[in-house]
Amino acid sequence: MLPHKQLEQRLQPAVRAVLPDADIGSVLVRPCPDPKFGDYQTTALMALAKPRKLNPRQLAADVLARLEVGDLCEKVEIAGAGFLNFRLKAAAVAKTLSAAASGEHLFFDKAIRPRTVVVDFSSPNVAKPMHVGHIRSTILGDSLARLLGLLGHRVITDNHIGDWGTQFGMLLVGWKRDLDPTALKTDAIAELERLYKRVSAECKDNPATLEAARQELVKLQAGDEENLRIWREMIALSQVQFDAIYARLGVKFDHTLGESFYNPRLKALVDELIARGIARESEGAKAVFFEDLPQLKDTPALIQKSDGGFNYTTTDLATLAYRLETWRPDEVIYVTDGRQQLHFQQVFAAFRRWHPEAPMKLAHVWFGSILGEDGKPFKTRSGETVKLADLLDEAEERAFKVVTEKSPDLPEPQRREIARVVGIGAVKYADLLPNRQSDYVFSWDKMLALSGNTAPYLQYACARIRSIFRKGGETSNREPQTANLELAAPEELALARHLLNFGLVLDAAADEYRPNYICNYLYDLAGHFTRFYENCPVLKADAAERTSRLLLCDLTARVLKQGLEVLGIETLEQM
Ligand code: ARG
């Protein structure tokens, strides 16, 4: 068992002995924010003291008197307003590392109560190229899905593609009138985009085209054979492009149920909400009003327009109901940009009224924009939105230059493969590292730098550790190892203590939907490793020390690899 869990298990009965009515589930042990004061701390006693009007330091002293942790910790200290600070003994740290080396764990535990979690992410729109705005949803969503899966939850990923809506009226007009079959063969999305742009520009000053588009849309909605066939073809062509990008990014979905999948449910949904008084008519339209919710009282959610059409909100309500019936999830997570915050507040609030019995947690995990180096929304030189495929091509091309500079002697195919892993990894990491809610500036030079908090730096750190094993003629220790670890040098201990916190960081990242915690943890880990490696000879150390230090190297490489993997970033044995 990991040391912080062991501490919790002993702390909780000690608290119960002093305060028999306390909720000991809240008595948790977390990393000490400043390692100067210890490895772990608990702040729970202050929270327990307050409502009971107890002196928190006295409570801490009373609990401490009943706490037996001498085998794990140095002297436990009561600090500040009444925290307890714990410093692990070197032997306890070494014991945990030995358990990891023998394959018992990799410093994290699977969830005790696995949950079923639906992750709705990526969700691009048909007949439009995926652009950088979709990149954040795809990368963040994928890493959250991987993280929850690693922690033992049952994860269901669903790509809610935009395959329905008014744009299809214009696309149908363009397809029937102006389609260039050769262009469609070479680059379907570009051709669909051309048609859409042309017709939508025409609609602005030609009422006849606008009317034609409306007619085509009505026919499509009414189930016209020909329009349905063309619409299906547009979806299939778009899906080919989406799939090519997902393959490059290593992203998979369990389901791709687009918006259109829910069309048959929309009418009944609106009828039911009206019948139950959850929605009502207003100026010919139908909407859910939230008079009792201060933040939503002025923004009713429209669910049927006055022309009878349904909208994004109607579809999202139907989608949630479907997910509830089909998967009975404990939680549904939506990953989109911050501009959709109001939309999801409305959807969640309306859904709670419609299904007050549904216990599931609903979370909108939103993110900021990607900016160019001029601080404005990220665009190409000619002012177009950047297409995701072009961006990934450029990442690989630039990474190829970096790799060639660093390792000119490797054969080209190998340099290309390294460049693929480094280029895609760099783009993903740059996207995951900032606090997701802030905008970030897209900078090739920064994300591809071999030093600093970047993917290439961490990928090289990983490969460097593997090269120690090659140099030493050792196979990296994939087999469980039973050797004892001896941790004596301060750099060795600091590295080992940092390894112990991997699971706490994974848990925090999952609880708050913030993969950036993992990025920063891995960056610090690589720093601890560098200090260790500079100060503690490994291959030149004598037998027992050598074995022990090689184990430390191997555990570091495994945590780095696992950490990057959960971010969706590949590593290589050799770079
Ligand atoms: N297609 C939408 C867009 O590109 C995102 C959909 C997000 N998911 C959802 N269930 N609303 O903005």
Task: Provide the descriptors you would attach to this structure in a database record.
single chain; 575 residues; alpha/beta; Gyrase A, domain 2; four-stranded antiparallel sheet; four-stranded parallel sheet; 21 helices; 13 strands; binds arginine
In short:
The protein is α/β, with parallel strands linked by helices. It is built from 21 helices and 13 strands.
Task: Explain what you see.
The structure is a single chain. With 575 residues, the protein is an alpha/beta fold. Among the domains are: 86 residues, 2-Layer Sandwich (Gyrase A, domain 2), CATH 3.30.1360.70; 83 residues, no CATH class. 54% of the residues lie in helices and 9% in strands. The protein is built from 21 helices and 13 strands. The strands form four sheets. A four-stranded antiparallel beta sheet has the order 1-2-4-3. Helix 1 packs across helix 3, helix 14 crosses helix 15 and helix 18 runs parallel beside helix 21. It starts with a helix and ends in a 9-residue tail after the last helix. The mean pLDDT is 94. The structure holds arginine. The site of arginine has 10 residues, from helix 12 and strand 10. Arginine binds next to helix 12 and strand 10.
